[in-house]
Amino acid sequence: MKIGYQGIAGSYSEAASIQYQERKQAEIKNLDMLGYNSFVELVQDVASQKLDAAMMPVENSTTGLIDRTMDLYRGQSVLATAEVYQPVQHILWGVPGGRIEDLEEVYSHPEALSQCRNFFAAHPWIQPIAYTDTAQSAKLVADEQNPKLAALASPRCGDLYQLIPLQKEIQSEETNTTRFFLMESFVEPGEGIGKYLQEMRGEHPKRTRLMLYVETPHKPGALAKLLNTFNLYDCNLEGLDARPIADQPFAYGFFIEVDISHVGIDMEIFWKTLAYASNRMQLIGCFEPMNDGKIGGEAYATA
Ligand SMILES: O=C(O)C(=O)C[C@]1(C(=O)O)C=C[C@@H](O)C=C1
């Protein structure tokens, strides 16, 4: 199996891929991991089946939905088939002789920089600089050997790139965790999504979580009508995020996550009822939930 991930060795996306590999040891014998520089390319290569899958960050416990990846799935032939919770504990890595007082620039992935807002607020002389991923930021600092530069990256990057810790656990929230989706290629089957989901229930009964992208008519009560349908079928709503629709200023679509374990009717009827209440609906994920949404404990133990 060939899995793509953002960054180079030491990135959190690589760590999430390793965690997934450990979980699936019995099923996946050979796993090839390929580092990428861009989420756009990752999604393209999954959709075109150059890759079997991509490990993509989708939500962070400190900063919420990772829209730079979630927005890429809209209209693409991809589907999340598994999720991974990866603890994200950043270290401020510098070079020998480096001191926080002398730092001028700190490099990292933009998501990682946002997760450390409190640190930058407390050290206003340091400029946060966005870079492709956390591990390449660490490598850049190691290559430059300039004590005015540092990187926010994972604990593993210290050994990998011979760096010195200037401060540990630098993220604003101690339990900072990023949730990843394993994205695979998915073309809507001719017989429709409802039938697909009904078959899925038989074959993979533990895949009780759906991630949907839905656009509702722009009229009073439209979203309420859709949400009522979930209520009608006893679906617990696990997430709801609004995202702007391209080229339709101030119109929004919704990423909706639901637990379908208590749906008592055929999934074809379920899907048709939802489709009736929406203008556009895409299945973004169908997977077995991990950690029951709880962060810490088991997730940290298995990191
Ligand atoms: O830069 C990395 O190490 C990544 O894997 C990317 C990424 C992200 O995009 O959210 C993954 C996990 C952390 O939240 C920080 C960065």
Automatic annotation (TrEMBL):
One of its GO terms (biological process) is L-phenylalanine biosynthetic process. InterPro entries: ACT-like_dom_sf, Chor_mutase/pphenate_deHydtase, Preph_deHydtase. The keyword NAD does not apply. It comes from the Bacteria. Residues 2-185 form the Prephenate dehydratase domain. GO terms for molecular function: prephenate dehydratase activity. PROSITE patterns: PREPHENATE_DEHYDR_3. It catalyses: prephenate + H(+) = 3-phenylpyruvate + CO2 + H2O. Pfam families: PDT. Pathway: Amino-acid biosynthesis; L-phenylalanine biosynthesis; phenylpyruvate from prephenate: step 1/1. Keywords: Amino-acid biosynthesis, Aromatic amino acid biosynthesis, Lyase, Phenylalanine biosynthesis. The record marks 178 as: Essential for prephenate dehydratase activity. This is prephenate dehydratase. It comes from Suicoccus acidiformans.
